[in-house]
């Protein structure tokens, strides 16, 4: 017993020394990642008196880096904080795609359904499938490329009116023949969500996604609603910064009208990883590269670009809307998530987020 009592302090000392060493290694590793990420970001976001951005990096669902840069409001000289709410532009498409898959899981539609099943009068609707809307392969004219878009930019439009705005335009190609990024397809998807669910798109997303997974600071965008911690958007001109151009959010609608924070976007990514919104076999459809009618593969699933960095599979999507830019990258093999949100379209986080993801991928190791 005496020997045992003598050994206990010895092993406790060794154990505590091990914990101390582990702590030092962990802190050193964290500081190494933080330093490398800081060096990347300050190359673009290097002026504290300009609009800025917020960046978050997570590994295995836990944040390892979360910082804000620049100003959230120039007129009031408000410093940016990680809690700021941004417009996320086309990252909205992720939510629209998952909403469609939720309706499919409920048996209310099939992604192979022609849109004529729900919109009988849509031109060539028998030949256009929901799958083609999701994968930007419908051939429908993208309304953002129409010169007359300026006529309605600030007008409040119903989803039906938005669809009517572009539906009679000549198609760019036959359905399923090519991939061409297309906002019109995702506006149509939002309209289908409303027709099939009997709810507005905003209500459907709020109830079935935001509320369901605790995204408490995410919204269907509004310039009139008072939103706590809203970041204000800017453009840069030769003579300085100006407030973002006004837009009615009924125009981008389900293709680009959501707002969120980096913390809520991490909740979104974690919910997908944990299959909280869809069964695994149904969620997998979003992350499977699709094919054109010719059999040619495209690097897009449902709401995400699906790319390969060498042997590393990557899911990514950006967003751009007046005064704001956004980018998110996820490396499923190592559960690395990087999100960057900017409140000036002069500061794009797109390549920066990719570069950060590559640095973290290297440092995390196998």
From TrEMBL:
Pfam families: Beta-lactamase (PF00144). Residues 42-345 form the Beta-lactamase-related domain. Transmembrane segments: none annotated. It comes from the Bacteria. This is Beta-lactamase family protein.
